[in-house]
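Sat 14:20. Reprocessing the chain from the morning session after the first attempt stalled halfway. Input below, unchanged.
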Amino acid sequence: MKKHDKIYLLDQMLKAAKYPISKEYIAERLECSIATVYRTIGDLRDGYGAPIETDANNGGFYYHGDDSFELPGLRLQSDEIEALLMASHLLEDIQKGLLKEPLLRLLNNISNLLKEHGIKDKRNIQIIYALFRKADPEIFSQVFQGLQNGKKLQIEYLARSTKETSQRSISPLKLTNYKNAWYLDSWCHLREAIRSFALEQIVSCKICDEPAIEVNQKLLKEHFSGSYGIFSGEPKYTARLKVSEQVAGWVAKEQWHSKQNLMELKDGSLFLEVPYNNDTELVMDILRYGENITVLSPDSLREKVKLTIEQMQKNYQ
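Finished this time. Tokens:
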């Protein structure tokens, strides 16, 4: 962690603390030695005039007086700068067809903030949106307004698998950008359940006068974090995969699921367990690594992958 990052984090810790915090706790959070803790405290107190006091009883540190002290300028850590860059690129895409004025002001503020931290030209940093699926700007606008105003939406949706359209009354819950595509997570009043709709597959959208229903946040969290990929819901199966040594280094650095189980085997390969509900996206990600991933179980997933490979082979006979 860089020096200015330590100063920024220490300032945040002292502002949030209800009681004096020990040098040991500070050292743990700042990932440094006790000596560096004292140097950082000195830099913050002497260099920036921070009202740091030492508690006479336990030797802990705290801010004295009111909450008026502020560091000059905003200090960002490297991961926060990366997040701002990602947000900037994402907002640039949205503002091409929606809310141009407010988003333009926000983009300018982000650009100025990045310049303060040494990123003078963010065009030097490229984010490539491979296989990007573009939503219709007018549809995006209607969805966005309905979501923000808490109104039900009446949509016509084209299913990719059947090529058939259906009329849906939905209560929008949140917009999600996942793998370079926009999804509208909603309560579907036709199915009486939570459903995710790909925005580029929405043919038409109308904002209704009727207020959208609210869905329990615990239910939402369980639905969206339970299973693999965009096909959420309560997990019904657990995929058990063997990853070859050739790609183990890549897969080990990937997060397939928040509740995945990853184990390194003696031969250098990996054993990976992933909970899932719908196997569509999981099959695609398994095939992404070709012969380097083997499905051990369940049998239904093995057969699905095997059948897909057989159908692929027919294209080349």
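Residues 78-94 form the longest helix (17 residues).
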